Backbone:
């Protein structure tokens, strides 16, 4: 038995002390088994500790070196404050194929006119969600499925526009309805993502993932090609929220599934309120915990976090406020039910001009200070800029670059 004393706070003062336990015989020869085991143990501990340390040092992506900053366009949002600590989707770096989803516009699958309208809005929306679930009356489910399938075919013929084409299926608990939805839409190459509503268990994601895999994977000899269809999972109940981590694990390959299709978690406020018998207020304080938990789990598993619908859809002032709050909480996008909501959503879910300017100065000052003066922090506009703020600034500038196609 040996004792280990590692000071984990100071990188410069790691000390490991290995003392033979009193039971170890004093006359053991050098090179004996216990000595080798001691060395091995110490080297493993050091290596794992060094790994943890190096993973904490913020790395500057090469495309964000100072000489590139001049190219960052200054996007607009009216009067944002600095959002220190606001997160980005970390996974964007490791998943360059990830679709940008600031806005998801819901379109009733039974309403031809609205579907046509939505397809004309391609440049104003990031994702169009053709709805087969609660936006469709019960007696129009089949009609809606046919119309949505027809729309997927039409999109296939016309070629993909800039917006992502998604379908919201009926909840898995409906059984036959959900299965028929999946059977109808999955074979269509123009389908890009499935919104799975009312997810409550990891098994829901596993089921849909297996179906996607079976339907979209083509194996010829040793070669396997999978048409990318993503899952956007909606959390709408207390049970769904409680099981959220297992759900995220199942969708991102941290469970037994060999394939991962999940890209985003969606918070569905109205069903959530109904399930918990919450009293809906304009401040939405009754959903603070749920929204915050969803963002936390999404970020922990590299998923996008999509905020609730603003149901008072004609009230654009309150929409602006709700968007701002959602972004401050770490959401990466928001659902919409009316085209008039899109512009405000898009303007909010990008870094503001003020954020970008501040982040640029933070980066320049911090790099100059740490590199030339050897200090770990500097001050910009009266705010201390240390390693976490530097990390925030990198993310803001990356988001600014991504949203402007850089
Ligand atoms: N998608 C595409 N187009 C839409 C739209 C939507 N979600 N909502 C409205 N429009 C269109 C209308 O068809 C209309 O176009 P037109 O002038 O070419 O006919 C235009 O935008 C203005 O619509 P407006 O008259 O203001 O709204 P409305 O009374 O027709 O519809 C709602 C209001 C709320 C019923 C409608 O926006 C809607 O159905 N939203 C989706 C609801 C939904 O999906 N709920 C479930 C998910 S939470
Ligand atoms: Mg719902």
Residues:
């Amino acid at each position: 038995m040996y004792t280990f004393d590692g000071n984990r706070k100071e990188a410069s003062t790691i000390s490991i002390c290995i003392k033979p336990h009193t039971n170890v015989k004093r006359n053991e020869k050098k090179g004996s088994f216990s000595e080798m085991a001691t060395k091995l143990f110490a080297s493993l501990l050091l290596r794992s500790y060094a790994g943890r340390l190096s993973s904490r040092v913020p790395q500057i992506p090469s495309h964000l070196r100072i000489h590139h900053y001049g190219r960052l366009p200054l996007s607009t949002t009216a009067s944002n404050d600095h959002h220190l600590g606001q997160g980005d989707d970390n996974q964007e770096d490791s998943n360059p194929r990830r679709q940008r989803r600031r806005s998801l516009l819901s379109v009733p699958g039974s309403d031809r006119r609205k579907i046509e309208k939505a397809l004309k809005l391609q440049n104003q929306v990031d994702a169009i969600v053709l709805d087969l679930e609660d936006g469709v009356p019960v007696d129009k489910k089949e009609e809606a499925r046919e119309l949505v399938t027809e729309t997927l075919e039409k999109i296939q013929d016309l070629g993909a526009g800039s917006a992502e084409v998604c379908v919201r299926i009926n909840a898995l608990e409906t059984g036959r309805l959900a299965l028929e939805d999946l059977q109808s839409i999955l074979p269509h190459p123009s389908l890009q993502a499935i919104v799975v509503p009312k997810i409550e268990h990891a098994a829901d994601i596993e089921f849909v993932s297996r179906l996607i895999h079976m339907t979209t994977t083509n194996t010829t000899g040793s070669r396997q090609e999978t048409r990318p269809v993503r899952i956007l999972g909606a959390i709408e109940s207390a049970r769904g929220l409680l099981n959220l981590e297992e759900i995220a694990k199942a969708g991102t390959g941290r469970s037994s599934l060999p394939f991962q299709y999940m890209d985003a978690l969606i918070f569905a406020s109205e069903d959530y309120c109904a399930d918990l018998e919450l009293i809906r207020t304009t401040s939405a304080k009754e959903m603070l915990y749920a929204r915050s938990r969803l963002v936390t789990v999404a970020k922990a598993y590299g998923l996008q976090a999509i905020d609730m619908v603003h149901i008072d859809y004609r009230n654009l002032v309150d929409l602006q406020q709700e968007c701002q709050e959602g972004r401050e909480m770490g959401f990466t996008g928001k659902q919409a039910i009316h085209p008039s909501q899109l512009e405000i959503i898009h303007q909010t879910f990008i870094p503001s001009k003020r954020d970008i300017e501040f982040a640029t100065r933070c980066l320049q000052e911090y790099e100059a200070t740490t590199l030339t003066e050897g200090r770990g922090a500097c001050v910009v506009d009266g705010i201390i800029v240390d390693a976490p703020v530097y990390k925030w600034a990198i993310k803001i500038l990356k988001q600014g670059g991504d949203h402007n196609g850089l």
Q: What stands out?
A: DSSP finds 14 helices and twelve strands in the chain. Confidence is low (pLDDT under 50) at residues 1-94. The chain has three domains: 13-80, 92-348, 353-400.
